[in-house]
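Q: What would this complex look like in 3D?
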Amino acid sequence: MASITIDGKTLKVKNGTTILKAAEQIGIEIPTLCFLEEINEIGFCRICIVEVEDEQDLVSACNTEVASGMVIHTNSEKVKESRKATLDLLASKHRFDCWRCPKDGMCEFYDMLKEHDIVFEEFGPGIGRTDEQIVGTGISQDLTKCILCKRCVAVCQEVVTANVLKFRDEDPLNPVVSPTPGLTFDESGCIFCGQCVKACPTGTLFETNHVEDLENVLLEDNYVIAQIAEEARIGLREEFGVDIQDESFDDVFDQALKMIGFEEVVATGVAEDLHVSALGEELYQHLQAKNDGPLLSSWCSGFVRYSELYYSDYLDQLSKLRSPHILQGSLLKHREHKGKDNVKVISIMPCTSKKYEITREELKVNDEQVVDYVLTVREIAKMIKRRGFDMENMKPSVKQDSPYALARKTSYDLLENVLAYVANKMNVPFEKPKYKVIHGERLVETEGVIEEATIKFGKEKFHVLRVSGGQAVKQMYQLLKDGKKKYAFADVSHCANGCMNGGGQAIRHNVEVHDVILARDEAMRRMHENKETTTNEYANNLLDEFFTEKRELLETSYSVKEFTKE
Amino acid sequence: MATESLNVKELYEKWILDAKTKLTEEDLVPRVKEYLIGQHPEICGKCAPCRDGVIKLEQLLDQYIEGTATIKTLKEIERLTYNLRASRCSVGLDIGKNMEVILENDYHVLYKPVKKY
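A: Here is my prediction, written as structure tokens for the whole assembly.
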């Protein structure tokens, strides 16, 4: 234990605690910019500096451990002046076109300038270090706004494990954070999970804009259909500031969508159920064939791309199924509205990787994209807020009488639903699996989590995995390589904590990540309260139809993808 | 180049050790700027006080050379110099300390040419 004094208050803290954490214990919040707990604690930004008596220099609170007898001032004149000067310097290299910034009001840097009342004197607001723009199908980067906090680099390395974004200091006076110099995100091995977008304190990294294109599509003579994922529903409630469990808002939101020109608003539910049944069927076949190695789920496009880029030995193991929103697109375009050529399908997703997914050659039907655009929760919220509707007094839209508009019938746990389908097919009773965590911990992004369960189908026993998070995916491939245990199936999402924490979700700063995820999970649990682990009859019938007539709309293929890293 | 930077280094050692040594007044600003430029290869580029601060200091010294410096220029030099105390490593800290020595010993040299009104 070390006895220290912070702003006149004496307290005892454990050895090894950082000054930042110690101050938190007595309710003093030291401002931070580059700090991300357990991910980026490197003291780059020099905003969290504090004054320690008998020390010559100011020290950063986020990565300095306390020592017994320290007398710390977190808000002295010296500290305040230094913070202002540092912010001034950062601002002098940041382009301020805030009104058209993709971060749209959620910019931590802006809030910080406001909080510290920064006045530009000798050096006015900057125009950016370099005006380079790096494009990508899922995410893009505008280097004029980068303040070199290195958060995204840490996330890409520690959480996602793709190591695409790097801090390049060949010219130390003008460093850049970028993927491989001169190349796009696509060419440098990015999986477009969007975790860096969420980590960025400014609008440097952002989802590739589909809003302008969509606005044009809405103006033209098109029949535009929006499909909304359930996870996006929850993010939207957050974006519009209503109670996160308020399901009545969803209908109001649908009405707003109709008012901006969407002809139909549907859920992704049916396709999700169809995906469950088809995956169950595939797993059943897989078990019957007694293949080596597990079947890997393919609904997470980030994971699919990660495998194609970095673990191409395992591509045969990936499920051949298209992801639910692509299936829904096919259902709408090639079944419900067959023959019409002006139908456009827009997916509203909590994911930036889906923006990339829709452009995949393997998923095109007659050389055309099945889903035309993917909007993240933030983009669609921005689009609707722009119209200035009175959302509070808006009449909820009347639910469409179509199977596509229905929410999914199966429960939220994809793995269990799939297993239930297989049990049903084998004519054996289904028991809910009991999960055991074999790697990492829930809610810890730097580790992700692998859960293992043993499932009994009659006399036969199988091991299944549920994996979420980049580190966990890496670990899962290691497990498969070691081959100590035979697994039958793995349900994988590349974002830690699943789509609830997806790269396209609403951004909440000033709220602990843990609390955000727990609240979203709780809201999702409410939505699925009365649902059982089962399969959807309607979807099963659809599956038969797909198998007999439209098999090419159900399945896809994978290939090794090239990339250059430096 | 090598000899030049050595001269500057010697010069500064002399300044720090012997506070009474003074440069000629015309000499000071260009020499300080030279010193700052000589430090560029040492800068790692990780933190703003040093990476951007040093460049800004040079630009401010340019105002002296051009004869456009005002009292605000001097205040800004002081501010950025003290802010170097928040640097992440000793490169920035040392530059800051050297600059502080200059301010302490030769403040009048910097104060004299500024436009006060």
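A: To summarize the key features: Chain B touches chain A at residues 40, 43-49, 51-53, 55-56, 60, 72-73, 76, 79-80, 82-83, 85-88, 93 (CB under 8 Å). The longest helix of chain B spans residues 90-111.
Q: Very helpful, thank you.
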